[in-house]
C-alpha cells in the first residue's frame, strides 16, 4: 500500500492558520529604482523595517509578493534577483525584521492596464498570495495586502484578503465599483498601514472599539 502524501498546512489543521501581511516591494518596502538590478542601490524606506518587525511581533507572517518583469525582459537574471533579495533580508534583519517568504512573478505585462489579470501570478492576479498561503498555512480571510498600486490592492482582494493602498497621494478612486466598502483602505506609507492593521486586530470580537 502506497503511503498517503503529507497533508498541506491547510489540510493538516485549519484552526492553526496564521494571518499574514503581503507586501509589495518597490515604493512600499524599498525606494523605487526602475528595474533594480544592483543590490548596492537598494534602500529600505523610512519606518518600513520597523513596521515589518511590529507585524512579526504581532504574529503575522510577512510575505513579499513582487512583480518583476525585469526578469522576463532579460534585464535581470533569477540569480541576480536572489542577490537583491538576500541584501533586502540582511538590511531588514539589522533592524529586527523578517520576511517569512518572497514570491515574484517574472511575466512581462501585455498592456498598461493594472486592473486586468493577464497572468495568474502577476498582480492583480492572486497567484503569488495563494501559493504562499498553501505553503505557509495562511488564513487569507484574516490577511492583508499592502502596496502602492491599484494592482496590489486588487491582488489582495482577489485572494480574499483586505488591502491597503499606500502613498502620500493614495486614493481608491480606481477601484471597481463592486468592491465592498471597507475591504480596501488607504495609508500614507507602510508604517501607517501596519498601524491600521494592528489597531484592527486589537478590536474586540464584535469589531467595535472599546468605549
Rg over CA atoms, rounded to whole Å, is: 17 Å
Mind telling me the CATH superfamily name? Answer: HAD superfamily/HAD-like
Strand order of the largest sheet: 3-2-1-4-5-6
CATH class: Alpha Beta
Summarize the helices and strands and which ones pair or pack.
Elements lengths: L8 H4 L7 E4 L24 H10 L3 E7 L1 H4 L5 H16 L7 E5 L21 H10 L7 E4 L2 H9 L3 E5 L17 E4 L2 H12 L10
Parallel strand pairs: 1-2, 1-4, 2-3, 4-5, 5-6
Helix pairs in contact: 2-7
What does this structure look like?
The structure is a single chain. 31% of the residues lie in helices and 14% in strands. The protein has a six-stranded parallel beta sheet with strand order 3-2-1-4-5-6, sandwiched between helices. It has helices spanning 9-12, 48-57, 69-72, 78-93, 127-136, 150-158, 190-201; strands at residues 20-23, 61-67, 101-105, 144-147, 162-166, 184-187. With 211 residues, it is α/β, with parallel strands linked by helices. Helix 2 runs parallel beside helix 7 (190-201). It has seven helices and six strands. It has one domain (15-174, 188-200): Rossmann fold, CATH 3.40.50.
Give a short overview.
Helix content is 31%, strand content 14%. With 211 residues, it is an alpha/beta fold.
For the structure shown, list the relevant keywords:
single chain; 211 residues; alpha/beta; Rossmann fold; 6 strands; globular; disordered N terminus; disordered C terminus
Amino acid at each position: 500500500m502506497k503511503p498517503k502524501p503529507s497533508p498541506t498546512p491547510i489540510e493538516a489543521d485549519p484552526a492553526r492558520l496564521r494571518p499574514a501581511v503581503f507586501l509589495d516591494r518597490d515604493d512600499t518596502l524599498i525606494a523605487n529604482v526602475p528595474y533594480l538590478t544592483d543590490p548596492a542601490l537598494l534602500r529600505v524606506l523610512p519606518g518600513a523595517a520597523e513596521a515589518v518587525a511590529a507585524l512579526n511581533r504581532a504574529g503575522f507572517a510577512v510575505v513579499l509578493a513582487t512583480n518583476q518583469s525585469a526578469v522576463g525582459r532579460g534585464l535581470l537574471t533569477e540569480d541576480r534577483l536572489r542577490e537583491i533579495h538576500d541584501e533586502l533580508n540582511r538590511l531588514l534583519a539589522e533592524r529586527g525584521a523578517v520576511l517569512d517568504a518572497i514570491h515574484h512573478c517574472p511575466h512581462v505585462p501585455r498592456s498598461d492596464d493594472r486592473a486586468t489579470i493577464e497572468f495568474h501570478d502577476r498582480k492583480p492576479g492572486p497567484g503569488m498570495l495563494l501559493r504562499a498561503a498553501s505553503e505557509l498555512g495562511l488564513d487569507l480571510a484574516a490577511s492583508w495586502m499592502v502596496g502602492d498600486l491599484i494592482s496590489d490592492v486588487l491582488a489582495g482582494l482577489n485572494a480574499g484578503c483586505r488591502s491597503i493602498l499606500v502613498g502620500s497621494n493614495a486614493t481608491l478612486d480606481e477601484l471597481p465599483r463592486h468592491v465592498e466598502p471597507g475591504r480596501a483602505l488607504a495609508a500614507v506609507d507602510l508604517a501607517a498601514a501596519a498601524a491600521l492593521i494592528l489597531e484592527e486586530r486589537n478590536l474586540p470580537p464584535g469589531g467595535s472599539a472599546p468605549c
